[in-house]
Amino acid sequence: MRYLLIADVHGNLHALNAVLAAAQKTGYERALCLGDIVGYNARPNECIERLRNNNVICIQGNHDAASVGEIPLEEFNPEAAECIKWTKPQLTAQNKKFLSELPRFFSMQYMLALHGSPENPLWGYMDEEIARNSLRRVPEALVICGHVHMPFYYEANADSTKAIIGNSKVKCMGRRIVVSLPSVGQPRDGDKNAGFGILDTETRELEIFRVEYDVKKTYDEVLQAGLPRFEAERLLSGM
After folding, report:
1. Tell me: the pLDDT tens digits for 83-93?
2. Of the CATH numbers 3.40.50.970, 3.30.565.10, 3.40.190.10, 3.60.21.10, which one belongs to the domain with range 2-237?
3. Helical H runs in 112-228?
């Protein structure tokens, strides 16, 4: 089976649409979103509904939890908190209920997927040390996360993480490995293109893709909504 893997949509409908269209051409049977459907950008309801209409399995992220009052805004930086304050009243009652009921991890055969880390599913920023500890504490051979907005992988007992640049393949067969997915809606690795992964569960090969989208449309929507200019500007550079 082929799984579409996405993370950190962050209310960026144009990026999400581009990813879903590209993934459909590539081919997949099931889809999984590793959290942070909302936050930062101006189309939270449309992104939630797009994922629901496409039967995407969703995991809760920290922005999702904060947008339904499960995390205090004091835990966020000022710009992120301002975006969450804007998002809260925008959400429909149905979409608030959806976000509040999301699970915080997904486990399938040899794979564990979550937003942050096994120790802290909502807030754990994956790095070399946390990846090493994660592989020691969970039975799954493959741990996939979002939250960092930086695509990389870490193999058990390695000295460091390795960046995933552009369209790439990560071979997971016979390895204990952590993979951090690129962001759909707010990349921070210097590549402004939206990112996603396709995991083949038989070959255990994870292919990472980057796809262009109309960044200027999202940029304009952020400013028109009165959201922080910083969050709009970073879309143009992918930083």
Report:
1. 999 999 999 99
2. 3.60.21.10
3. 128-137, 215-224
